[in-house]
Please model this.
Amino acid sequence: MKKILQNMMYVVSLVIAVGVMVALVRAGGKTAQTQNAVSNAQLPVTEENVTLDGNPAPEKATEAEQLSEEASETEKETTLPIEDAETENAEVIPDEDTTIIFTGDVLFANAFKAGYDAKGIDGVISEELLTELTSADILMVNQEFPFGETGEPVANKQYTFQCSPSYVTALKEMGVDVVSLANNHVLDYGKESLLETFATLDNAGILYGGAGETVERAEEVQVIEVNGRKYGFLAVSRVVPTGDWKVENSVPGVFSCYDDNRLIELVEQASAECDFLAVYPHWGVEHASYPEDYQTKIAERCLAAGADVVVGSHTHCLQGVTFIEDKPVCYSLGNFVFGQNIDRSAILKVTIAADGTVSYRYLPVYATGGVTYLAADEKAEEICTYLNDISVGATVASDGEINKKN
Model:
């Protein structure tokens, strides 16, 4: 009897062991098949979802399709934020042209005040020219005077200028975005007037370069972003009346380049951060049609350091254009708003196409009765012909287009 009971217990144990093994095998199969469901989009084949012939039941196949769709949606939800992040960090490719206009010297003195007081901006800039200026994405001028109501004129200086801060509205109406203060007139009425100039421009939302309350501010590159690209403007002067105008000697003061090593350092730094960099120096000899050797040397160093264009002021007359490193140097644009009459002058229009191609064109201008006009017909052709004649290594077409001379 005891042996029979032992045999029965052995059989029961064997059955239990076999049952456990079967359960483990089935559980393992379900786990493996479940893991394959996301990638293969199929439900595991179990007793509950097969027919008697071992094939998957139709209704369970539909559930498999639903699981596949859910897995696909889950994958999409994981991927989209990554794609969005890549899009946000991707380089923005501009789809529009960008235009920059540079003018020469601007002086708000007697002729300007008479015209502006009588007719507003129409008494200073012709309607056609004003449209050209305000249509540009960026407009830069040389501000050849300080704003202010304080200070005394510098002693023993032949010409000293100052204008009431209220006239800053004219710069706004012209569409000016950035001015150069690196010249030989911003300290005509001393440091207090220069400080007033900074405050006036800041309050008007107009950027300024080439002068500052500190060395760092005077050397600061003004950056404007348009159509996904950064445009930098660096103003500097090679003409100051005395050494105490230099910002490194006395503040506030002017950034100068009698020693141009610091200028070149700044150009190298700015060119690495900007898509297009313009250097705007105040230099040369007044009323001289051709540049000095030092102007060419400074331009060569600036362009080799990474600048894209050099545009000069100070001579009160036009100087020619040349190409260095396949980039243009417009030595002087002459006067723009300056006194009653300007026989011939020009503004420089730079167009940066969406694909990065850059083109340059002179727009000839002149002034009579204190109003500056956009030249046309024979007058325009005469000015462009003159520019072509005094230029070396470049051609100026009758419509003002500038190209490197072959």
User: Anything to note?
Assistant: The mean pLDDT is 85. The radius of gyration is 37 Å.
